[in-house]
Amino acid sequence: MLDCPPGRGTACPLTVELSGEAVRRQATEIVIGRTARPGEVYHDQSPAAGDNPPSLRLTGRTVAQALARLRARHMSAVYLIGEFKKDGSGGYHVPPSGWRPEGGRRVAGAWMHSSDSVTLLVAPRPGDPGPDPSRPAPF
Question: Which is nearest to 122 in space by CA: 73, 84, 75, 71?
Answer without folding.
Answer: 84
